Each structure stands twice: as C-alpha cells, then as structure tokens.
Amino acid sequence: xxxxxxxxxxxxxKHATMLQxxxxxxxxxxxxxxxxLKRKSMSQASRNPTSKQIQSNQPERDLGAxxxxxxxxGRYPSNRQEPTVSIVMxxxxxxxxxxxxxxxxxRQCTDDGSSFEIVVxxxxxxxxxxxxxxxxxxxxxxxxxxxxxRPGISHARNxxxxxxxxxxxxxxxxxxxxxxxxxxxLMRTQRMFxxxxxxxxxxxRFDVPLGPNEDFxxxxxxxxxxxxxxxxVGVRATNNALIRRAALDDDERExxxxxxGLTGGEDTLFFSKLQAKxxxxxxxxxxxxxxxxSPDRIQLPNVWRRAFQRGQCRASTPMLLPQPRPxxxxxxxxxxxxxxxxxxxxxxxxxxxxxxRALYCTWKLVSGIGKIFWMKRFRxxxxxxxxxxxxxxxx
Length: 395
Known about the structure:
Layout: H1 2-28, H2 42-47, E1 60-62, E2 85-91, H3 95-106, E3 116-122, H4 130-136, E4 143-147, H5 153-163, E5 168-172, E6 176-178, H6 182-193, E7 197-199, E8 202-206, H7 214-220, E9 240-244, H8 266-276, E10 281-283, E11 289-293, H9 300-320, H10 326-353, H11 355-372, H12 391-394
Parallel strand pairs: 2-3, 2-5, 3-4, 7-10, 8-11
Antiparallel strand pairs: 1-4, 5-9, 6-11, 7-9
Helix pairs in contact: 1-7, 9-10, 9-11, 10-11
C-alpha cells in the first residue's frame, strides 16, 4: 500500500509539473514569423512544354539530367554526386504543402559540403504528387519521385529507406517547412555526438485564427524539449529526425511494421526497437521545422482523437517489441487509470475557472483512456482515410 501511494503521488506530481511547464512555455513563447517561399506556380509548371509527361508505368524517376541551379544557399543539390544524406518524405494527397516542403529542403546545406538528395514517396494510388515534383524539378537537381501504391504509412516509410542512397536519412513530413539550417544542424549534431538518431523540435504553424484555444492548441502541436543540443533523449517521432543507416539491421527489409500502416504508431515501434539495441538518441535544439496545421486539425474532436491515439501507442508499443514487455504495458495502463481518476474531478472544476487548463487536463484524460484501451479491437484506421472526431474511434 505504501508503494502504491508513492506511485499515485509521483503520477500526480509528474502531470502537474508538465502542466505548469507547458502553460508557461506557451505564454512566454514569441511568435515565429511565417515562412514565405518563392516558388513556381502549379499552373506554369503544367503549361511548361519542356516538362516530362507523367508516366504511370514508371514508379521511380530521377528528375534531372545535367547542370546545376543556384539556390538561396548557393546551389541546389546535384544528382552528379553520390549523396551523403537523403532527405526522405512520404506524402499522401497534400500537393500544396508538399510543394512548400520540397522548396524548403532544396535550400538546405550540409555541415561538411557533402551532397544530398531529396526522395519523395507518394502513397496515393493515383500518384497525385508526381506532377508537383515534376513541376519543381529542373535538370541536374537530385530530386526523385517514387510511387508506393500499397496503402499505409509503413509501406511509404519503408520505401523511403529502400529508395534512399545516402548513409544518413533525414526524415520530414509533407506538411512541414524546414528552417534553412535544419539539415546543417542535424548533421553537425550527429557528427559531434556520434549519434545513431538525432531528433529536432517541431513548432506548429496555423493558417487560421485560433481564438480562445490558441495557447492549448499551440502546446498540443508543439514537439519540443527544454534541453540543450547533445542531450540524450528517448523515443520520439519521425517528423524531424536524422538516422544513421549503419544503425539499421541490414537483413530487415521492412523496418516499419506494416501491420500499423493504417492505425499509426509504426514510428514509435521503430525507434523503440532501436532503443532496445542501445542506439544513441540525441537532441538538436537548433534543427527546427514548422508543421502546418490544417483547419480541421484544430477542431477539438480531432484533437481528442489524436490524444487517444497517442495514449494507445504509448501502452501498446511494449507488447509489439521482438521481446514483448507486458510489465511496461501494465504500467502505462495503470498510469491511464490514475489519469482518469484524478483528472475527471479536476476538469469539472477547471472548466468554469480556467478553460485553458481544463483543455490541457482533458488532453491528458483522453490520453489516459487510450492507454487503457490500447488493444487492437479499439484501434481505428487514421492514415489514408477521412476520419472525423473521437466518435469514429470509439464506435
């Protein structure tokens, strides 16, 4: 009984500290200016008579033949050299944001002057991203389009790894904008600390007014740690990461579990496997990307859906490891039960006193429910399908 009481006190104190930190961090955080990119319009690209025609029977294409083009950092990456780094991005029907992501990656530079390439893996059956990539590519640019029609984010990520030629793999999502020194800082951190994986912060970027929920939504979609560069960290996501290929198993053809391709959590499992092999995870505070949050994602039902899914990933991942850890899953289930028991009355009180804190506590409450109901029968498809609200998860 004494140990159970200590556990309860630790859990409540942990979440109270997180609440205080996030609220203070958000309110003191200065607004980041929007990234404005000069880009070729889609209409001009489609009317360009010299553009290559779309050929559906060519799943992988090297877009460019000779010559270099200047960029804001001096030169675009050239396909004449074998790349040291491969910037890989899976995409699914996000043609507008994908264009911005590619342009932000084209202006990158490496820490040692080595070359890099950009690999776009399109997971839509119709290959909707091919015209976008083709409209950006010019002769000599190391930009490749790969079509992966098998549905699921796991298939797309696995194809990213197999198509990439670099010894370092920089991962970014198709709705993110990389800072000009993003790749430079990732590579510098990796070399300085001999890291197998380097993670960086992700800050949200909203295109519509958020109203009274601004502080909460900013905290919810911020993936950052108050740590200096070089700090050892735990498992995080693939939306801003640099991976050393040597840390991967040569005989593992599909490092991302395809069974999780439609439900999510494949990146958490992937990094958990690397962590179990004593891979070194390091933080790079300067390697920043901005994630564009679409208007539908700021709706509270969709926020709760994501919180529920995060809780499920936390509790289910230990059971999916090559050597399952049921003790860890039971631990997280117990944490979820305590979150529900302690936060329910707090939310009822805060809802009329401090709406922002009430939303934050609701986030943790829904995450706790996800930790309890992590089993397969409670998981729903969230990739490649129009999912709306928490109701679609629980039905």
